[in-house]
């Protein structure tokens, strides 16, 4: 694992430059993308760089990590809406090449189809991850099997509470979500994990130095050969 500790703005810029080089080397890259407040600065940088002609997404394909169950794509808190609003609507990506799990299709065959679609595109070249305060990645909560593929999860009270800041009240936060599994994530070629703020410090310490244990899902990343972790000084304060 490579860990980079810097200011919030600097890590967003450094990660964005990493994406530019990556896409220049592989214009038809398959990117795994994440939601949450953490990647917003990175996405803003990528929009800027795309508009300046530094990078083009015209041949890029994306697969998002997760989606809430029961929120329509045009619901302002759905992750599809987030991606359109924060990235896709502002870059030159082909909308048909952007995949986000469908929060209404929870049948086993639909979930399996997401992993199949990833495989049919040759797998994910570069996966972006945020991290929950409890060490979750995507919505893979503590205790999730490291062997899991795309599946439906029940969100923990802790995660619903944390994400309620985006909703009018906690009652509106969905109880379930669809998310890529731990195995799906571990099968990606390269991983960038980003974390900002003091409330992520413990999870980052457990990710980098803790036991590899499903109680901190992100700890499995210690077994992945190509992980770069970008943290600001607060999230990196326990390293
Ligand atoms: C949600 C998302 C995760 C994200 C996490 C942290 O639970 N499903 O993918 O990493 O929140 O979010 P934030 O970046 O807002 O702290």
Write up what this structure looks like.
Helices cover 30% and strands 18% of the residues. It contains 7 helices and 10 strands. 44% of the residues are buried. 2-amino-2-deoxy-6-O-phosphono-alpha-D-glucopyranose binds at residues 34-38, 65-66, 130-132, 138-139, 159, 163.
* Number of DSSP strand runs: 10
Estimate the helix proportion, in percent.
25-40%
Based on helices, strands and strand pairing, what is the structural class? Answer: alpha/beta
Using the CA coordinates, give the radius of gyration: 16 Å
Percent of residues in beta strands: 15-25%
Largest beta sheet: strand ordering: 1-10-9-6-2-3-5
Unreliable stretches covering 5 or more consecutive residues: none
Gross morphology is globular
> What order do the helices and strands follow?
EHEHEEHEHEEHEHEHE
Bound molecules: 2-amino-2-deoxy-6-O-phosphono-alpha-D-glucopyranose
> End-to-end span in angstroms?
13 Å
H/I helix tally: 7
Sequence-ordered SSE layout with sheet pairings:
Layout: E1 2-6, H1 8-25, E2 30-33, H2 40-51, E3 61-64, E4 66-68, H3 79-86, E5 98-99, H4 108-120, E6 126-129, E7 151-154, H5 157-163, E8 176-179, H6 182-186, E9 190-195, H7 201-209, E10 227-232
Helix pairs in contact: 1-2
The structure holds 2-amino-2-deoxy-6-O-phosphono-alpha-D-glucopyranose (GLP).
